[in-house]
Amino acid sequence: MWFKKKNIYTVILLIVFLYISMRLTEFDLTKFRDFRNMIDFLSQWFPMDFSKLPLMLQDSMETLAMAFLGSFLGLLIALPISFFAASNTSPSKSLYHFSRFALSFIRSIPEIVFGLILLTALGLGPFPAVMAIMFHNVGVLGKLISELIESSDPGPQEAIKAVGAKKGFAYIFSTMPQIWPNLLSHYFYRFEVAIRTSLILGFIGGGGIGQRLFNDFKTFQYSAVSLDVLIIMVIVVIVDLFGSYVRNKVI
Fold first, then answer.
1. Which of 14, 131, 141, 200 is the residue whose CA sits 20 to 30 A from 40?
2. Cα–Cα dist 107/200, whole Å
3. Has this prediction a pTM greater than 0.85?
4. 207 — phi, psi (to 5°)?
């Protein structure tokens, strides 16, 4: 029977968590009684102001470059580390645990915190934003890739070792082909996330379309804000479609 007594406790526990969360977050749907104010606010966004479109496109390219560079460099660094952080390819237990701890530590620091720290040393601009995205992606991609490696089929690896190949060659030529499609999928997802992160980093002086969005918002140029938001949405959709295209080609 699908219904068990312990399910009652689970449901009660879930209800308690929901209640506590709603109290802590002041969750109250009656606050939507001022919904008309939001509609009035959004109505100021239109018609869009296209006079700054060339500058916005230039900033968008900067945001794309920040996201691409940060996520790609993160992948390059995370890839070799992930083999140390995978239980089936790590040379020793101590190195395995150290790699896992290091990845968890890096991953636990949000990009905006990395950005604020790096801004003090590198100044304003896109460079500290790229570094912040890269550091965080090392932690995230390192964990995801190590899990892909652990779930890979050991058969091809053992076959390559049996003909006298060294471990490094066995990992590259047996494990990598197996995890490559999922690795690309993770990379493009992180690239998409990096675009959104670049926007937040723009709020603290990281440059790109995020900084323009922040400045337009602060100066009450809502018709320009709407165009900023539209450009950001188009960029994310294009990257998502491109990622799906590349992944399908590889599979």
1. 200
2. 17
3. no
4. 80, -175
